[in-house]
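Consider a concrete sample entry:
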Amino acid sequence: MALDLSEIRQQITQIDRSLLKLLSERHRLAFDVVRSKEITQKPLRDEKREQQLLQELINFSENENYQLEPQYITQIFQKIIEDSVLTQQVYLQKKLNEQREQSIHIAFLGKRGSYSHLAARSYATRYQEQLIELSCSSFEQIFEKVSSGEADYGVLPLENTTSGSINEVYDLLQHTDLSLVGELTYPIKHCVLVNGQDDLSKIDTLYSHPQVIQQCSQFIRSLNKVHIEFCESSSHAMQLVSSLNKPNIAALGNEDGGHLYGLTVLRSNIANQENNITRFIVIARKAITVSPQIHTKTLLLMTTGQEAGSLVDALTVFKKYQIKMTKLESRPIYGKPWEEMFYLEIEANTNHPDTQAALEELRQYSTYLKVLGCYPSEIVKPVDVR
C-alpha cells in the first residue's frame, strides 16, 4: 500500500534535518583541521587529497549500490569542501589581522536586492556577525565612502563571464590609495520581474542596469519592439517597476531582489550565457596581511616604455620566478594619448621572498609600478575527478 503524500514529506523532512545535523558536525571539524595546519604550516588546500576523497565517495556509492550519479556526488561534496576551505581561511585571516569588530559598514552599488548587495552580504557574513549596509548610486561613491571612513569595506564588480571587464571600476583603481583586500564570485541569474501579470507579450518596456541589458541581449532581441530604460542598478529598476505598478513594464534582475519589492518572476534563465558569474573585489583603507597557507592573489598597476617588446620583457619576469599570471588588462591613461596602464593579476603573496624579488626586478622594466592589493581569494576552484 502506497504511503500518503504527507507521510512521505514527513520522512523527507526528517532526513533533511539529519543531513543538516551531519553538515554542522562536519563544518565544526574544519576548525580542528585548521588548528592542526596552523601548527604544521601546511597549505589549507590539498587538491590531491580532495581528488582522492571524491573518488573514494563515488566508489563507495557504487559498491553500496546507492544509485547516485557520480556528478551528483561530486557537486555536493565540492560545495562542502569549498565551505571547509573558506571557513579555515577566515579563521587564519582573523587571527593574522586581529579583526575584532563586532559590526562593519560595507558599501555596494544599488539598493537592497542588487547583485552587489547580495555579494556584499556573502562576503561580510563570513567575517562578521553584524552588517551595516550602505547603498551607493555609483562606483565612485563607493570609493568615496571607504576613503572617508564612512564604510569599512566597499564591494565592486570587476568582471563578468558574459559582458567582460567593468572598465569604470578599473579606471577608478588608477586614482585611489585604497587597497584590495578580498575577492569573491557571485552567480548571476537574471529573470523578468513583473507586478503580477503573466503575459510576456504585453511587456513593452524593460528597466535594468546597462550590464544586465547587455548580458540578456539575446532574450531581449527575441521580444517585439521593447523599449529599454537604463537604471543605475538592477535593484533600482526593481524598485521603479514595483512603484509604477503598470502591466506593460518589467525589470530585469534577480529573484531574491524581486521578492523584496513584491515582484514575481515571469521568465527565468534569460542570460546569454547559462554559467553567468560576476567576480567582485573588496576594497578597504588599509592593506592586510595574508597567511602563506592561503591561496593568494596580487593585483599590480604598471606602465612600461613605448619601445617594441617592453611589455614582453616585463612579463618574462613572472616566468622566471614561476609566478602564474591570471589576468592582464589594459586601460588608457587620461591625458596621455595612445599610452596604456596595465593591470596584472598574479597568484602570489607579496610577503614571499620570490614575489618580492620578482617585483624588484619588474621595476627595471616598468616606468611605474604599484601594488593595488594582496588578498586572499574566495574563489575555490573544484578539482577534476575522473
In short: The longest helix spans residues 5-40. The mean pLDDT is 90. The radius of gyration is 24 Å. Residues 103-188+277-284 form a domain with the D-Maltodextrin-Binding Protein; domain 2 fold (CATH 3.40.190.10).
